[in-house]
C-alpha cells in the first residue's frame, strides 16, 4: 500500500456533521492518519459558506476531502452536493456521504449528484470509529487528493 500520510502538506478535511457524538467518532478515526486537520460545521449553510469561502470562512483552506452527512439542517447533503457540482473548483473535491438509512433511492441520488462514496453510519460507536479509520486510511493515507501537495 502506498502511504501518503506523511505528505508535505496536511490533509484539510471538511466534516459536515450535526451530531457531536458522530463528529467526535469521525475525528477519532482520522487521528492516526498522519497530518490531518478536521474543519467541522454542523449544517448545510455552514458547509456551503466554508466551501465557497464566505463570511467567517473567508480564509478557510480548500479541503481535499469532504465528509458530508446527508441528513442536515438547512440545505441537506443532496443540496450541498448539487451546489458543489455547479462549481468547477468544488466539483473536483471528493465527497464521502454518510447516511442513516442507506435506502437505494437515497444512495442513487447521492451518486447522481456527485458523491464519491456513500457510507451507512453504524449505530454502534466502536463500529463507527472503525469505519472512519478505514475511510481515513483510504482517502488520506492512500489516495492522491486535490488541494494537497504530496512528496510521493
From TrEMBL:
Residues 12-136 form the Response regulatory domain. Gene3D superfamilies: 3.40.50.2300. GO terms for biological process: phosphorelay signal transduction system. PANTHER family: RESPONSE REGULATOR RCP1, RESPONSE REGULATOR RCP1-RELATED. This is Response regulator receiver protein. It comes from Haloterrigena turkmenica (strain ATCC 51198 / DSM 5511 / JCM 9101 / NCIMB 13204 / VKM B-1734 / 4k) (Halococcus turkmenicus).
